[in-house]
Amino acid sequence: MREIHLLELDSGSRAKLRNSFSFATHSRTSHTHTPTRLHPHPHTPPTPQPTPHTHSFFFFLYTAEMTPLNIFILSIMSGIFIGFGAVASFTVLGGMSNGSPDSLGVMSPGLAKFLGGAIFPLGLMIIVFCGGELFTGNAMFIPVALLARKITWQQGAKSWFFSFFGNFLGCVLHAYFLAYKCRVFADDPWLSFIHKLTMRKIDYDWGEAFLRAVGANMLVCIAIFMVIASESMEGKFFACWWPIMAFFTVGYEHSVANMWTLTVGLMYDTDRTTGQFIGRNLIPVTLGNILGAVIFIFALYYVYHERSQKAIENLHLTHSTAPPARRPTMQTDFLMPELTSMATTTATTGNHTIAQTPFKS
After folding, report:
1. Residues 80, 173: contact at Cβ < 8 Å?
2. Torsion region of 251: left, alpha or beta (phi above 0 gives left; psi -120 to 50 gives alpha)
3. Per-residue pLDDT reduced to its tens digit, 202-260
4. CA nearest 305: which of 45, 44, 55?
5. Predicted model pTM
6. Which of 107, 89, 117 shows the shortest CA–CA distance to 185?
7. Is the bond preceding residue 284 a cis peptide, omega within 30 degrees?
8. What is the spatial distance between Cα 33 and Cα 64, in angstroms, rounded to a whole number?
């Protein structure tokens, strides 16, 4: 039996050999199969593999290199998708209520909020599987690109501007045509429920709204990381569902979700104004979403991965005479070949193909 060193083979051959080895050791058939033994090079430490942190590097390049029109269109679609999850969730919650979000009479308030939270992730799931641009996701990706000096400040501002106002327009369109004009909340208990929910959200003080927003976008960004890490449809489904269900059930504040919720409430003649909605809710919630993404998710993970990769590099220098491999950080291009190819295509054409990035959000 011939012994083969892994370094003698290309990546495709290594994958085929691993598959044959796995099949041989786990096969339940009666015939015997002698697996090929794989011997790693005796002096080479394991090469660090790409993680969701490094995989995410190219996802913001899609947004940064897209034309403003493409960003705006996908952001409008994402606002509409968030509206679908919100209208379904509040239809269930309002129907269980006695006209108040704090008085859910059919069952315990905690269980009712959980049921509403179980439905609300529909919006992010559609964005993940169909494609879209969500401002709260870009709040994490764009600072990564800026720090890596892969985009300019103008490109980052363009992405945030068009995704934010595209999401807003999509939420307003869905709220008006597919909720208000359809009279979804025109009768009690839904009408009283949406009135009181809108007033409560607008009446938060700045500090409370801000902190609730920090928690919301931390969970949204965690969901995005989990989606990128998952390789199956089922995995991406649950990666969306758990964190989004959690932030809705707890009552955290999400700027794009509030664009829909409070727009609907104002359309139904709630005793609040558009200026109060923007000044007392949308602004602090947006700032809190940005802080939650940039500081508590991106910055902390960035510091952790940089320190970890430097430790791996030191291991190479200590135990091997060969030069260390490039560290797969956000400053390098060490990613799966298909991601590299997609990013190159986008950067040169400025086009965004949804089928290429089914889990971009």
Report:
1. yes
2. left
3. 999 999 999 999 999 999 999 998 998 888 999 999 999 999 999 999 999 999 999 99
4. 55
5. 0.72
6. 89
7. no
8. 51
